[in-house]
Design goal:
- By secondary structure, the chain is α+β, with helices and mostly antiparallel strands.
- It contains four helices and eight strands; from the N terminus they run βααβββββββαα.
- It has one domain: Thiol Ester Dehydrase, Chain A, CATH 3.10.129.
- It has helices spanning 25-40, 45-50, 122-125, 127-142; strands at 3-9, 53-54, 57-64, 73-83, 88-96, 101-109, 111-113, 119-120.
- The strands form two sheets. The protein has a five-stranded antiparallel beta sheet with strand order 1-4-5-6-3. The chain has a three-stranded antiparallel beta sheet with strand order 2-7-8.
- This is Acyl-CoA thioesterase.
- Belongs to the 4-hydroxybenzoyl-CoA thioesterase family.
């Protein structure tokens, strides 16, 4: 399975009054992990945007297990959970320094033309991304 591990140092401004990471900031960390995963496959969101495509989030699931606090370090693990040529689902685990799972989640995405916001098949717009995603899923299934 292709899985990226992205280190995060918890900054003070990411925490709430209770001293733990504010719940919405984990979504930002998901995005950091997802961007790193895509870079690991050899691609960049910026290249997609240069061709007038965007990749909006269409669904999010997130489960909070343990708090992460200011001053701690965390790891965002990211991998491809599902891909059908139109929808891409990334999965995430945020691990505390001691290896405990703090947060799990998934985000679903489609690519859209910037001017219409209509979904567009990845295979047609970005055949190299399509091939890399299919290969990443095949590696996971064969492990």
């Amino acid at each position: 399975m292709i899985k990226t591990k992205t280190p995060i140092e918890v900054r003070y401004q990411e925490t709430d009054q209770m001293g733990v990471v504010y719940h919405a900031n984990y979504l930002v960390w998901f995005e950091i992990g997802r961007t790193k995963f895509i870079e690991t496959l050899g691609f960049h969101y910026a290249d997609m945007e240069k061709q007038d495509f965007l990749s909006p989030v269409t669904d999010v699931t997130i489960s909070y297990k343990k708090p992460v606090r200011y001053g701690e370090k965390a790891i965002v693990e990211t991998w491809l959970d599902h891909y059908d040529g139109l929808r891409t689902v990334y999965a995430y685990q945020i691990l505390k320094e001691n290896g405990e799972i703090a947060v799990t989640g998934k985000t679903q995405h489609v690519i859209v033309k910037k001017e219409t916001f209509r979904p567009f098949p990845v295979k047609k717009a970005f055949p190299d991304w399509h091939e890399a995603y299919v290969n990443a899923l095949n590696k996971e299934r064969n492990n």
